[in-house]
Design a protein that fits this description.
Number of strands: 0
Number of helices: 5
Helix content: over 70%
């Protein structure tokens, strides 16, 4: 069985969305590494008692990692039936994680809400995944 005949023709866009998400995760990780040096937070310490800005940088990365596995699952399910829509929604979610992080990096946790638009992408792929499930179950 050839993978090119199994996947939808537009699945390449989905792969590029995954690559975009990888770039985002690398960026967030590098920012944490730089903040560790800047604020002198040694491994394995996760958070600083003295440097709240470091904690904001760390939380931006950690929170993204906490939701990333769920996003990958729903992104993949949605993309198998709706590759172009899933790619657009995925790109919205990934881009929002940059906005979320940049807001958090200010040291004012309320500014992380700059990335709230990411819920459009996140809930969008969840809704598409539900649609896929219902179609597979013969509901429509």
């Amino acid at each position: 069985m050839d993978i090119m005949t199994v996947l939808p023709s537009n699945f390449g866009y989905v792969i590029f969305t995954y690559l975009y998400s990888w770039i985002m995760l690398c960026y967030l990780g590098v920012k944490v590494g730089g903040a560790r040096k800047k604020y002198d937070v040694k491994y394995p310490t996760m958070y600083s008692d003295k440097e709240p800005v470091f904690n904001c940088i760390q939380r931006a990365h950690q929170n993204t990692l906490e939701v990333y596995p769920q996003w990958l699952v729903f992104q993949t399910i949605a993309a198998l039936a709706y590759p172009l829509s899933a790619s657009v929604l995925g790109a919205i979610w990934v881009t929002s994680r940059f906005s979320y992080a940049w807001g958090y990096y200010t040291g004012d946790p309320a500014k992380r809400m700059n990335g709230v638009y990411g819920y459009i992408g996140y809930f969008g792929v969840i809704i598409l995944s539900i649609s896929v499930a219902l179609q597979l179950l013969g509901f429509f």
